[in-house]
Specification:
The protein is mostly helical and 125 residues long. It has helices at 8-16, 32-40, 48-56, 65-75, 80-87, 91-105, 110-120; strands spanning 2-3, 23-24.
């Protein structure tokens, strides 16, 4: 896979989907040929910088599908009550999901949660 996405979740999803290699577009051109040769030979090609991003994924707990819904609506700038209305849950349940998201992403507030999720490739705007 040749991509600009370097978030640990992006990398994980690509490898789960069957990618045998992962090369970032900003990599030097001399990395592409060895990557293509390795993958063509049936090997896997994961550069050090990509492997370290993937390893950092293990530091975080995975978000539940409902937490992902809350996070995506949070990224759109919705308030807790609006998120609750959209998902047919109470504002208090929304706050509980948000608290869980903050803990799992190891951040202090809503803005940090969205920023971290974008950087890690969990969500895309």
């Amino acid at each position: 896979m040749l991509t600009t996405y370097d978030g640990d979740d992006d990398i994980h999803r690509a490898l789960q989907a069957g990618a045998r290699g992962y090369v970032l577009k900003n990599s030097a051109g001399d990395k592409l040929i060895p990557a293509l040769r390795a993958v063509a030979a049936g090997e896997q090609w994961i550069p050090k910088e990509v492997a370290s991003r993937l390893a950092s994924r293990k530091l975080f707990e995975e978000l539940t599908p409902r937490e992902m819904q809350v996070l995506n609506l949070l990224a759109k700038g919705l308030a807790n009550k609006e998120i609750g209305d959209m998902l047919n849950i109470t504002e208090y349940t929304t706050k509980d999901h948000l608290k869980s998201i903050l803990g799992k992403l190891q951040v202090a507030d809503r803005t940090e949660a969205v920023t971290a999720a974008i950087q890690r490739g969990i969500i895309h705007l």
